[in-house]
């Protein structure tokens, strides 16, 4: 159960609500986000919402029986819009295209990608400065020095940036010099990191864990939301399966299911999803038809020279084609 509390609720009224809900056999937890105060009731007993709905201090009340509550679509009439400022929004009505290299490598590379995105009207650039790599000897990112240079150029181009946060100690710098923080598949269930991200006023995109279920992904989002930060996006990036013909099993099914279960925007990552350059385009277009609110993909001026994920990175000509086809597919979807 979710009870939305009124803005200036009196302490006595709050206590009475807790007592009443506890008396009905529900355990209560209060959640205060940057937006609103909520009381979450966990329990299984049948209840009549009218008993609570009329109490002073109750703004609204909703039955949500899933393990996740605040990220559930069941209580929120309107889906969430992530507003990055300067007219850049991500929501059901504002399809987001985010593109860029796997890793930020150099100033020259940053500028080449920004020019490519600007020429194609793309408003959000992706790139990692902290890279989770399977081998400790692989390129692990330029860190905060690279981030500062990237952010400065991106601002000059009027382009927002999304980059991965790997641990809590990086949050402060990343909040200063980026627009969306990405939690990677390997950190999906790093609950201390998720708690810390609940305290920041910055959008967070949570990727599905390498073998994470959708329910687990939604509960990870619940960590951040209940920690105070409602600005969340979810990302399907493929899961590990027994199939070896491609890098990951891109779970297209996840997109409509997540859209049904949550009010948060759902982003598709076909680059990591299939891991093969030739098939990033069809999987990206398929994600649009499956209902995604945005696509994130990897591009580089010279994919063969990319420091990471070269095999799944599009060159600029392929990227421009994909961007055009994505827009046409979004229009097609709207016309249905
Ligand atoms: C990335 O976006 O480059 C990345 C490492 O993604 P994932 O966490 O999905 O593997
Ligand atoms: Mn990558």
Q: How would you describe this protein?
A:
- The strands form 3 sheets. The protein has an 8-stranded parallel beta barrel with strand order 7-8-9-10-11-12-13-14, surrounded by 6 helices. A 4-stranded antiparallel sheet has the order 2-3-1-4, with helices on one face.
- The chain has 336 residues and is an alpha/beta fold.
- It is built from 11 helices and 14 strands.
- The two termini are 35 Å apart.
- The mean pLDDT is 97.
- It is elongated and about 65 Å long.
- Bound molecules: phosphoenolpyruvate and manganese (II) ion.
- Phosphoenolpyruvate (PEP) binds at residues 102, 128, 132, 184-186, 207, 237, 272.
- Phosphoenolpyruvate binds at residues 102, 128, 132, 184-186, 207, 237, 272.
How many domain regions?
A: 2
If classified by CATH, what would the architecture of the largest domain be? Alpha-Beta Barrel
Q: Report the end-to-end length measured between terminal Cα atoms.
A: 35 Å
Per DSSP E runs of 2 or more residues, the count of β-strands stands at: 14
The fraction of residues in strands falls at: 15-25%
Under CATH, the topology of the largest domain is which?
A: TIM Barrel
- Name the CATH superfamily classification of the largest domain: Aldolase class I
Mean pLDDT: 97
Q: Helices and strands, in N-to-C order?
A: EHEEHEEEEHEHEHEHEHEHEHHEH
**Rg:** 21 Å
Spatial sequence of strands, sheet with the most strands? 7-8-9-10-11-12-13-14
Assembly state of the chains shown: single chain
> What is the global morphology?
elongated
What does the main sheet amount to? Answer: 8 strands, parallel, barrel
- Specify the structural class: alpha/beta
So how many helices? 11
Q: What is the CATH class designation of the largest domain?
A: Alpha Beta
- Which segments are poorly predicted (pLDDT under 50) over 5 or more consecutive residues? none
Ligands (ions, cofactors included): phosphoenolpyruvate, manganese (II) ion
